[in-house]
Amino acid sequence: MGGLISWIALGLVAGLLARIVVPGRQAIGCLATIAVGVAGALIGGFVAEAVFDENIDLGFDLKSLAIATVFSVVLLLALEALAGRH
């Protein structure tokens, strides 16, 4: 249970940071922000493991937060591009 809560917390923080970094107003709510952050953490973890050829622990630390935030920004930009910015 603690792992799930830390993933949600990491997703929330990464999603919020992504929304701060991406310019403009995003029309998504709190749950979507968490979903973007968690998805960014998952995708970022898989890519980082493949690129760096090491096991990336997505616990709550600076490295995992940076990876999750970078990929959350990429995901948020991709979602905005698909939805078409207004």
Key structural traits:
86 residues, mainly alpha, 3 helices
What this model shows, in words?
There is one protein chain. With 86 residues, the protein is mainly α. It has one domain (2-83). It has three helices and no strands. It has helices spanning 2-21, 30-52, 62-83. Helix 1 (2-21) crosses helix 3 and helix 2 (30-52) crosses helix 3 (62-83).
Uncertain segments of ≥5 residues (pLDDT<50)? none
Question: Span between N and C termini?
Answer: 39 Å
Shape: globular
Rg (C-alpha, Å): 13 Å
Q: Biggest sheet: strands, sense, closure? A: none
Quote the beta fraction.
under 5%
Helical content class: over 70%
What number is the mean pLDDT?
82
Number of DSSP E strands = 0
Structural class: mainly alpha
Q: Domains counted in the coordinates: how many?
A: 1
**SSE string, helix = H, strand = E?**
HHH
Contiguous helical run count: 3
Task: Give a brief description.
The chain is 76% helix and 0% strand. It has three helices and no strands.
Topology:
Layout: H1 2-21, H2 30-52, H3 62-83
Helix pairs in contact: 1-2, 1-3, 2-3
